[in-house]
Design brief:
The protein is an alpha+beta fold. Helix content is 24%, strand content 29%. An eight-stranded mixed sheet has the order 1-2-3-4-5-6-7-8. A hairpin with a 5-residue loop joins strand 6 and strand 7.
């Protein structure tokens, strides 16, 4: 598990941010200055050219700025939207902006998916691209990481259960 030192009030953010960081097996840093138009708990993953953030706010908060932040910083952006009760009451959704030349491709309303090989993916609720979280960063894939509806359901449930456990866990446990 990746350790992140946030103020006590940001404990839930730190725990949820640890999910993609641990899956990517990477080191994140707190930027020396706040990232404009991003939540306060935004982290920088230099090795992956990635900014990772969490907010309890639902869309459209921050939606209009993901593309601009990606272009301004020449980084991919991953924004976790958790609500106040992640995966217990509130569905956890992810929005991303992927660098694409001098522009950014924004994909919204993605769900965490835990593959049987323990890989972590971001997958659409309906149609769209699939994003694998790798040590090198976010990898866009057009083929799903599952073969059938049962595998899809199982992977979504594994991820949701993992998020619920992270949200329940208290500091020091």
């Amino acid at each position: 598990m990746t350790d992140i030192n946030f103020p006590a009030g940001a404990d839930l953010a730190a725990r949820l941010l640890s999910l993609p960081l641990a899956a990517m097996n990477t080191v994140a840093a707190i930027p020396p200055h706040p990232i404009a138009h991003m939540p306060a708990c935004t982290l920088h993953v230099p090795a992956a050219k990635l900014l990772v953030a969490m907010t309890p706010q639902s869309a459209p908060a921050f939606a209009a700025t993901l593309e601009q932040v990606s272009r301004d910083h020449d980084h991919d952006v991953l924004l976790i939207r958790s609500g106040r009760h992640p995966e217990v009451i509130d569905e956890v959704m992810v929005d991303i902006a992927l660098r694409f030349g001098g522009d950014a491709l924004v994909v919204t309303d993605l769900l965490f998916f835990r593959h049987t090989d323990r890989g972590l993916w971001l997958v659409p609720g309906a149609r769209g691209p699939f994003i694998e979280l790798t040590r090198a960063g976010l990898r866009l894939e057009m083929l799903s990481p599952w073969l059938d509806a049962d595998e899809r359901s199982a992977g979504l449930c594994r991820a949701a259960a993992e998020i619920a456990r992270l949200a329940r866990r208290r500091s020091g446990q």
